[in-house]
Amino acid sequence: MTAIPFSLPTQGHRATLILSIALVILTLTLHQPLKAWVILMMLCSATIRIYIYRVGQTQRLSSRLINLLAILACISLAWLSRQQGLLEIMVNLLITGCALKLLSLRQRRDFLQLAACALFLVGCALIFHQSMAITLMLSMVLLLIMLSLQQLYAPQLAFKKQLSAILKMGLQALPVACLLFVVIPRLPPLWGMPAGKSTQTGLSDTMTPGDIAKLTQSSERVFTATFDLSVPPPTERYWRAMVLEQFDGKTWQLSPYRKQQQMLQSYGISRLPVVSQSTGTAYQLMVEPSSQRWLYSLNVTGPGNDSTRAKTQFNDDFSVSARQPVMSKQAFALVSDLKAPRPLATSGIDSKINLQLPAANNNERTRRWAAQLRARYSSDDELADAIMTYFANQGFSYTLTPPAMPANPVDAFLFDNQTGFCAHYASAMAYVLRLVGIPARVVSGYQGGEKLTDNVVSIFQYDAHAWVEAAVDGKTWQRFDPTAMVALSRLQYGFQQSMADQHADLPLFSRAGAHDSVLLSSMFSMVDTINYQWSRWVLGFDSDQQDTLFKNMLGKKTTTTLALFGLVILLFITGLLALYFVPRPAQKHADEPQRLFDSLALQLQKLTGIERAHLSARQYLRSLQPVLDKDAFLLFAKFVDTFETIRYLPGKADRKKRTLLRNQHYALRKYLKYRGKGLSVSSTTSA
Amino acid sequence: MTRWLHNMLSAVKNRLLLKWLAARIPGGRRHSLNMQSVFIMPTLFGGIYFVLCLALFVLGTNYQNNLLLLLCYFFITIALLHMFISYQNFARLQIQAKGISTVYAGDDALFHIQIASHSHHRPSGLLNIKWWGHQKGIVIDLDEDKHHISLPRSTYRRGVFSLPRVTFSSDFPLGLFRCWTHLDFAQPMTVFPALEKHSLKHIPHQTISGDGATRAQGLEDFENLRTYQDGDPIQRIAWKSLACGNQPMIKSFSEPASQTLQLSVNPASRNLEQVISRTAYQVVELSRIQRPFSLQIGSHSYPASSGREHRDKCLRALSTIGTSV
């Protein structure tokens, strides 16, 4: 059967209008991966559509013009988005296509293509955004798209009915969808997907002092950690993300050797550090999408369960990374031993890498200073302490806006400016330690975080930090945080408090500025809690939680129980559908007054034995007069009065009278409820 | 060759399908739709929608994105609900044939249908109505109050035909599924022969015994003028009298009543269709001027009479010449 080519009316065509509005909202919601001109294009075509809806098509756009526009758009997309990921390009392309199709929308076929495209885009939007607010927004868009489709197939149906039909459909679908979501087994990724290049990746795998200052002000969430017990104190919360071991005098980065090792490991099963589940601190990370593979862990860390074991790898430098870039919110269960030592590799490769010095001759003053230190202190321990005290005593200060130090940055920092942030301190200290022959490296990650509850802590981009690990004794890595020497408050109370003096340049409603106002901060914390629950229970629902759920419900997993379970689910869904669609018998008395009167008549008949038969309400009342007592009779008389008014004089204050009738009905029923009460004395004696 | 084969195959398929349908949905004047008579399948858009669901599932699995999976399941559930809703909506229809207008071959006959609902809910949405096997039909909106529908059917030749099945289909509410049915209303359609203009002059008379005292209106002898009435033939208006400023008058002629005109058709004649068309014209014209006539078709004869009923009888007889009815 072929679809009848069916050209759509232009003016006053509601379906098109609703679809255009849905597309606009969708575009604005999706904004992040979109180019500004793509958004603009969509806005323009929607405006044209709205104009056409009101005025009618005055001039037809030629298809040649639209094709030309399409080609131009494709070329510019191809040209401008060379640095973008495949996914972004696709989304941009789809939106552009939708905008152009909206312009040339003429037939029903076009409309359906556009609707299908919009439905797919709703899905794409969920790749980029998963917060609850955006999800609600997108559900609205979804509703609008469905509404427009129904509008297409039932154009004359009253708008209110359309809306209620769609809402009903959505609400009916939701429980079934949720059930399917909970019970359908999760599959592991079928194949790798193109990763979008995010503009804000948080940390970067190179550190040139100056980088981290930019993200300190960003209040985007990086991850949330839920501890099984309570949150460790801030001084323990050094979240290691990356270990930077290659230094060229300006920039720290991952050492090529480690990169290679990680790549090799990603093909095989990674060696697991032994962390006992009993002595370790267990926690669950809910990681926000970063398009990166690195994860955040405390000290020495192992996997907390099997699914995490399958999707993560544990590196030789005690960092943890995911096997796939984190493209959407994901949960990882980890166990860390906060007290365990981190030994150097027995092969000696660690110290070899971490004694490497930049080849170029720069930072001369630092070299001389290191030589002096070496001469003064024979013990490595004392030397490291000396460096730390140097930072504390020589008037160093902490700032987020240090002057630029392009040439000889370590020299400039140590001897000229003496001001900077964590990256400067860590970089300088690690370099000096290497100069004196102690293996040292920079670890970048996050420190502290904001406690949501007793066992939940959220880490934001402004918690980014860098510190030093040095093998002073030559056997184990030891943590040094030189920044703490100058800004101890940052370590103890987190970034929020230590930055109290720098609030002036923060935007008014930013999270970082919220700590001033009680209202704002309580608002933020409420939103945080909701978001946390959302990410924990909806976004973080993975195969493990599913497994636990099944285990709790079914006990042991056997083929029979699973089959039975599947059957029960199917039956449940069938039952729901039956509930929705099996026609209910129409109510016997659609009108309420008649129903009320009938129920009273029945009760009076039971009490008095006088049948109503074909008497009218008034006649029945009269026939009851001799047997009812005075109160009951009066109550019934009042009821009959109101009943007759509603029956024979409709229209005037009907609703009020109905309420009155209901009340009178209730009063009489209550009165008659007591057995024996209601009959007049004479009749009781005679009976 | 292949075209011929294709045609033959499709004819066979059509035949088998009709046979199956005749057993499944028997003909009748009135149809209430039910499980037996309603078919439902995804439309092309529905197919695309399912591909979309699959794509969302793959995306959701590969990105390990719970919301995408949820969305995918939501879409699937919507499709499931849609199936029930469209069936429920469509099965509310009650369709009744209200007769078909009789026309001359070449004109469009109108098949009148009344659409009602046999539940207290009214069906909604657009309803496509077309003849069996036709590509185009008419679209009505069930939410409008008008529920009498006239479905035109073009006719090509005279005869009495049984009406083909009528296909009703609806994509309500979202166009993912199409419900349809093919109904046989068991209505015969009579198509009168096409009219071909022909002179009335050379019709043979038949004199029946009588004294010729009574006279009937005729064409032969001018008798008198009478006042014009609606429906009188325009060519018999007395223009001279009208030009003088009088009321419009009609020239009436008279002839002996005993003389009836006798029309006859020889079913074996070589230009049978032309003869039939001319005779049909004569029947129509003679009836219009209320002149009695008889009709002889082969051995069968229709006695002389006049009036609309007689006319229709004769036309029906003419239209079935050579057919088995």
Task: Describe the protein's architecture and organization.
The complex is a heterodimer of chains A (687) and B (325). In chain A, a hairpin with a 4-residue loop joins strand 16 and strand 17 (456-460). Chain A has 687 residues and is an alpha+beta fold. Chain A has a six-stranded antiparallel β-sheet with strand order 8-11-6-2-17-16. Chain A has a six-stranded antiparallel β-sheet with strand order 7-3-15-18-19-12. Chain A has a three-stranded antiparallel β-sheet with strand order 1-5-4. Chain A is 53% helix and 12% strand. Among the domains of chain A are: 14-153, no CATH class; 592-686, no CATH class. Chain B is an alpha+beta fold and 325 residues long. Chain B has three domains: 25-192, no CATH class; 193-209 and 258-325, no CATH class; 220-254, no CATH class. Chain B has six helices and 19 strands. Chain B has helices spanning 2-24, 44-62, 66-90, 239-243, 272-288, 308-319, and strands spanning 30-32, 39-42, 93-100, 103-104, 108-117, 126-131, 138-141, 148-154, 159-162, 166-170, 177-183, 188-192, 205-207, 215-218, 221-227, 249-256, 259-265, 293-297, 300-305. A five-stranded antiparallel β-sheet of chain B has the order 2-11-10-6-7. In chain B, strand 6 and strand 7 (138-141) form a beta hairpin. In chain B, helix 2 (44-62) packs antiparallel against helix 3 and helix 5 (272-288) packs antiparallel against helix 6. The radius of gyration of chain B is 30 Å and the shape is elongated. The relative contact order of chain B is 0.12. Residues 208-218 of chain B have low confidence and may be disordered. At the A-B interface, helix 5, helix 6, helix 7 and helix 21 of A face helix 2 and helix 3 of B.
